[in-house]
Structures are given as C-alpha cells and as structure tokens.
Design a protein that fits this description.
alpha/beta
Amino acid sequence: MGEFSGAAGFHFIYRMNRKNHINPKIVLCLVATSFIACVAIILIIQNSKNHISLSSVSQDGVKAIQLMEARPIAPIEDEIFQLQRQEIIRKLTEDPSRVFQTLADVNTVIIGDSRVVGFSAYNCMDESRILAGTSWSILELPAVFYAVTSINPRYIVVAFGINEISQHLGTPVYFNTDESYVEALDYYLGMLQECAPNAKIYYSSILPASEEGLASMDGFRIIPERNNAIHAFCEEKGYGFINTEEIAYEHQEMYREDGIHFTADFYPLWGEAILSEIIRTGGVV
C-alpha cells in the first residue's frame, strides 16, 4: 500500500510539472521526500508488528510453555499403572494357585515362624521359598542368611512377631516394649538387606490372636499397637509393610483351635495380601 501511494504521488507531481513547469529540482526533492516517507511508514508498521509478536512470545508465550512443561504428568501415569495393577490382582485372585505361582515367578521368599510354615505345609509354595520354623523369632533370622544369599530373591517377606511378645511355646525371647522390638528389627533387617542388596524387603504385620488365643495369653492384646510401631519403622527405613490384621479379623472361622494358627483356607488370602502390596508398591508381575 505504501508503494502505491508513492507512485501515485510521483505521477501527480509529474503532471503538475508538465502543466505548470515546476523546477525539476523541486520535483526530485518532492519525490525523494515521498519515497522516504513511504519507506518510513512501512518500517514503522513492520516494527510495530514485530514488537507485538516478540512481546507475546517472550512473555505470555514463554510463560504458557513453562506452565505446560511444569504440568505434572506422573500422577496421570501412576493412575494408569494403578488401574493396571488392580486388573492384574483381580485376575490372579480368581485362582489362588496363580497367586502363589506368581510370587514364585517373581522370585519371592517368605521368612518367619510357625505361621509361615503353613505356606509349605499346605502345599501353597515350594518349601525352598519358605524359610521358617516352629517357635522362631526375629533372632532366628541369621539362620537363613546363607539361603537368602543363594536364592538372591527379588522380594523378601518377613513375618515374625507372635513369639516375641511372650515366652509362649518355649521361645526364650521377650520384647516387652515396642521400642525394643523395633530396635531388633532395625539390626536384623539391616543384616538381611546386606545378604540381598537388590531385594525389596516387606514386613508382614503380626497376625492377631482370636478370642481363644487371647484367653491363653492376654499379652497378645498388644499386637495392634506393636504393628503400628512396626509400620512407622518400615516407612522410616524404606521397607514395605503388609497389613494382614483386617483379613484375620474378617475370617475368624479360619483360626485353628489354639486361636493363633490358621487353617489352609487362610493362606490364599495371606498370599493375595502379599502379592497385592508388592504390585501396589511398584512390583513388576
């Protein structure tokens, strides 16, 4: 548009020059002035456009890009992963045998007392992956260090605690405070981690006693409180924690006569709780 205006001005001046015989020098000055004015107008307009664009990119645009880059994506991905994990758990729990096979396939070992012995006694898992013994306590943990080193498991589940509360069944152990037991856990689980530095260690909460069990040993009433202390310890140290109290309370019919041990029907539920927590905390199945 600026070029058109300049040309029109030139022709107008030329016609006027022919008609009125204007001095050629004046004509040239007017043409040059008109040309310079047109160029100046074009540059001003162009510069104005560039300035607006630059301002938009450098301030609003950059700010928008920064906000997009800072937008949290991890929670969305985590939600998808959690849904996938829930679907895996759902399919596995349709067939309890698949739960135990999966635990074996991902290289899991379970260490503990007579309650843990049930995993092999009821043929849920191969005894090579069940490192347990009657009346065992956390003090017996070093007895399995060699086996743990040989297996080099990916996941280790530790389930002690019932024998540490009293001298029940002849065990010489008695941790009369939560602090003393947590201190023992810190020491022995640390040694266990050294045997399998790449393994994720989980503590399966102390299964409560039924009313029959409480009648035989009133000290078992501290189990919920002790589990809270163990849970806090695991969170502080980075160990996993598997809460099994709820399933025990919901299935009182699965206790044996002593109110401490469980029937075969309980072990698929326990296995499911273990596998679910492994999957929930990022384990790959």
